[in-house]
Amino acid sequence: MTILLFGVTKDIVGSPSLSIPTASVTGRSIPKTVRELRSFLNKSYPELGKLSSLAIAVNNSYAQDDEQINSYDEIALIPPVSGG
Amino acid sequence: MTILLFGVTKDIVGSPSLSIPTASVTGRSIPKTVRELRSFLNKSYPELGKLSSLAIAVNNSYAQDDEQINSYDEIALIPPVSGG
Amino acid sequence: MIKPDRFVRQTSLSGFGLEKQAKLADSKVLIVGLGGLGLPVGQYLNAMGVGTLGLVDQDFVELHNLQRQVLYSEDDIGKLKLEVTSQKLKAQNSQTLLKCFDTYLTKDNALEIVKEFDVIVDATDNFAARYVINDACVILNKPFVYGALHAFEGQVSVFNYEDGPTYRCLFPKMPSPEETPNCATNGILGILPGIIGTLQALETVKIITGVGEVLSGKLLVYDGLLQNTRKVSFTVVPENKVITKLQTDYGFDLCESSPSISAKDFLALQQRKKLQVIDVRSIEEFNKDHLSGSVNITFEELKSSLQKINFDKDVYLLCQSGKRSERAYAILISLKPEAIVYSVSGGLNQMASVCP
Amino acid sequence: MIKPDRFVRQTSLSGFGLEKQAKLADSKVLIVGLGGLGLPVGQYLNAMGVGTLGLVDQDFVELHNLQRQVLYSEDDIGKLKLEVTSQKLKAQNSQTLLKCFDTYLTKDNALEIVKEFDVIVDATDNFAARYVINDACVILNKPFVYGALHAFEGQVSVFNYEDGPTYRCLFPKMPSPEETPNCATNGILGILPGIIGTLQALETVKIITGVGEVLSGKLLVYDGLLQNTRKVSFTVVPENKVITKLQTDYGFDLCESSPSISAKDFLALQQRKKLQVIDVRSIEEFNKDHLSGSVNITFEELKSSLQKINFDKDVYLLCQSGKRSERAYAILISLKPEAIVYSVSGGLNQMASVCP
C-alpha cells in the first residue's frame, strides 16, 4: 500500500511517499480502515500523530475514519499548509 | 466513444466534447484506428480536416495514425494554440 | 463608464463577453494579505476590471519579500505594503475603486471589514488569519477563495460557496504553532505563490461571473516539483456551516511580521539585563519623555546613523505606538541582514498600560 | 555578491538551498515576447535571482494590453514594452543583468540572439515565432519552455530538453494563418497568461537548478473553466531533432502588433481613393519632403491635436521608418477606441524602396 505525502507530512517522513506492508509477514496487524491507518502511522511517526487536522484522501476523496481501505486504493495524507 | 476537444477544435464543434457511436446502427463504419477517426471527423466537421497539425491523444499519449482505438479509450483532440 | 477597448480581449471572448465584464465591474473583492499570494491576485483582478478591490495589510516591505512578492521594488523597502500596492494598482487601472484597510484582519475587525464585500480572497500566511476568515465568511455567508503554500506545493479551494463545505469541513481544528512550521522557518520557492495566486484569481472571476465550474467541495493540491495537480473531493460537515460568532481567541502567528517583542516581555527582560534600546521618535518626543538608558536616533536619520548602533548586540527598537519601530525594523534588517533586531510592539503607549 | 537575506526563503528551503540559488545566479534566460506570458516569467525569474535575463520585443504598450499584461500601467501606453519592462525589472532587482533586444525574433536574428542563452522561454503570441524558436533551439541545442493560450485554455511544455522531443514532434507543420484564429480575433481571459506564464517560469527554474522533474516529453493541457490539468506524453520523431538551418520563410502573423498596412498596399490604395494621411514626423522632416495630401501633426503634439483629425474617416499614420507611427497608433487607439487607424509599416523609407 503506497501513501502519498504532502506538506509537513513529507518533511516528517522525509520522502514523498511511504510503503506499508499489505500482508502480515511480521505478525503486526495491517490497517484495514482509515482509523487503523492513522494509528499505524502514529506509531511509526509520532510527529504525524501530533497534527490536529490531517486529512486522509482515499482515491481522491476525503475519507472518514471508519472507511475501509485496501491495497488497490490510492491514499494521500494532506495536512493544512499556511504559507502565503 | 467520447472525444474531448481543446483549442480551436472546441470552437469548431461548438462544444467541449463529442460523442461518436460505437455500434453501427446507421450502417456507417465505426472508427477502429486513429486514422479512421481522423477521416470520420473530417467528414463530420470539414474544418477539422483543415488543421495541418492536430494531435490526437489516446489515454493521454500522443497516438500515431495506425494506433487502434476502442470505446473504453479516452480520446482528446489537441491542436496547437498560439495566444500569448 | 468602461472604455470599450480596454477589455476587448475579454468582451470579444466567446463565453465571456460584455455581460460577464459588467459583472466584474459590479463586484467587490476583498484581498486579505498583500504578500506572495495577494499581489498576483490584486494585479490580475485589477487588470481584468473588478470594480472594487479591498486591500488588508499592515506589514512593511522587507528585502527578503522581493524574492516572490513581485509588485515590490527595492525602493519600496521599509514602506507600508498597503501604500505601495494601492499606489501601483491605481496606476495600473485608475477606474478601480480601492478600499484600503491599514490593519491585519483579526477577530475584532473581521466581521466589519468582510461584510462590505462579495468575495473574500484568503492570501494570508498564517493559520490564525485563515480560521478567522473562514469563521467570518460562514457567519456572513460569503464565499472565500483559499490559497496556501508549503515549499514546492500549494493548495487552492473555494470554501463556503453557496451550500458548499468550509475550511473547517476539511481541516476542523486549527493547528497549534508547534506542530506545523511557519513560513519564516520554512522556505517557499519564489514562483509558487505566483502559480497559486493566479489560480485564486481565476476562481474569484468564476465566482463573480458564473463562467466554468467553481472549485467548491474540491481541494486542489498542486505539486510543483512533478507538475502534478490532484483534486480531492470533500463534503459539508453540517455543524461547520453554523457559526454564530467568532472565537474569543485564534492565537497569533503572523509569519511575515517583524520579530517583535511585547511591551510586557520587553520590560521584564529589561529588568534582568541592560538592553540596547533605540528610540526612533522625533527629538521633541524624546526630550519630553523617554525610557532611561534609551538612545534617540530618529526614524528619518536611521539609515545614515548605523555607526551609532552596536550590531554585535541585540537591538530593541522603540517608538510611541510600535508603528515607526516596525518600519525601522524593516530598514535595519535589510541593511544588516545578520543583525538581531526587535521592535517593541505597541511602543511606549503599550508600556504605559502594562506598567502603571 | 548575493545579499544573504534577499533569497533566504529559497536558500533555507530544503531541497533548494544556496547551491540551487547559485545556479540561478549563473544562468542566462532569454524571454521572447513581453506580453501576457513574458511579463510574469520576467517578473518572477528576476525576483528569484536569475543572473542574466534577455528580453526581446519591439511592440508598444496599448490600452487593451492592460487587461492581462500586469506590469504595464496606464502611463506606459505608447511606450516601448522593452523600455518599460527593463526599467521596472531593474527597479525590482538591480543585481540582474538585463540584455535588451529591440526587435522581434525572426529567422534573420534568431540564431545570433538565442546562442547567448542557456534556456529560451517562448512567450510569443504567434505560430511563426514559435516555429522560429523551435528550429533555432534545435540547431543550437538549447531547451525551450513553451507556453501558449486559447480562450480559457493553455499549454505548457519543455521542448528540446536534452534528448527530449521538440515542438515539431508534437505539431509537425506550422498552421496557416487561415486555419487558426489569431489572438486579435479571439479573446483571452486576462488571468490565463498569468497562470501559464508562472508555470513556464517554474519549468525554467527546474531546468536551471535540476530540482523536480522537467516537463519534457509531456504536454500540459490546462483548462481553466474546469480547473483541469492533463499531461499528454509524446516522443521524439528523430527527423525533428536534426535541423541544420532555419527555413527561408515562416510567414508573419504578429498578433499584438498594431493594425498596420504595408507601404505597398498603402500606395495602391492611395491611387484609388483619397486617404486621410497624418504624418507624425517633426516639422523639419515634413518640410524637407512629404507625401502630397498628407497632414503634419508631430508625434509630440498628437494628443493635444485630436480635433485636427476626422475620426469618421479611416486614419493612416505615417513617419520615416514606421516606428513613430506605430507608437502614435497606440496613443490614438487608446484615446479613440472606436476609430479605425492604420500605421504604414516601414514608413517613407519603405515607400521609397517600393515606389522608385
Q: How would you characterize the overall build of this protein?
A:
- The complex is a heterotetramer, with 2 copies of chain A (84 residues) and 2 copies of chain C (356 residues).
- Chain A is an alpha+beta fold.
- Chain A has one domain: Ubiquitin-like (UB roll).
- Chain A is 25% helix and 20% strand.
- Chain A starts with a strand and ends in a 6-residue tail after the last strand.
- Chain C is α/β, with parallel strands linked by helices and 356 residues long.
- Helix content of chain C is 32%, strand content 18%.
- Chain C is built from 12 helices and 13 strands.
- In chain C, the strands form 2 sheets. An 8-stranded mixed beta sheet of chain C has the order 3-2-1-4-5-6-7-8, with helices on both faces. In chain C, strands 9-13-12-10-11 form a 5-stranded parallel beta sheet.
- In chain C, strand 10, helix 10 and strand 11 form a beta-alpha-beta unit.
- In chain C, helix 3 crosses helix 8.
- Chain C is globular.
- Chain C starts with 7 loop residues before the first helix and ends with a helix.
- Chains C, D: Keywords: Nucleotidyltransferase, Transferase.
- Chains C, D: This is ThiF family adenylyltransferase.
Count of DSSP H/I helices of chain C: 12
Query: If strands are numbered along the chain, what order do they take across the biggest sheet of chain C?
Result: 3-2-1-4-5-6-7-8
| Average of the residue pLDDT scores of chain A | 90
Poorly predicted ranges of chain A:
none
* Overall pLDDT confidence of chain C: 90
| Overall 3D form of chain A | globular
GO molecular function (chains C, D): nucleotidyltransferase activity
Protein name (chains C, D): ThiF family adenylyltransferase
Pfam families (chains C, D): Rhodanese, ThiF
Domain Rhodanese (chains C, D): 271-356
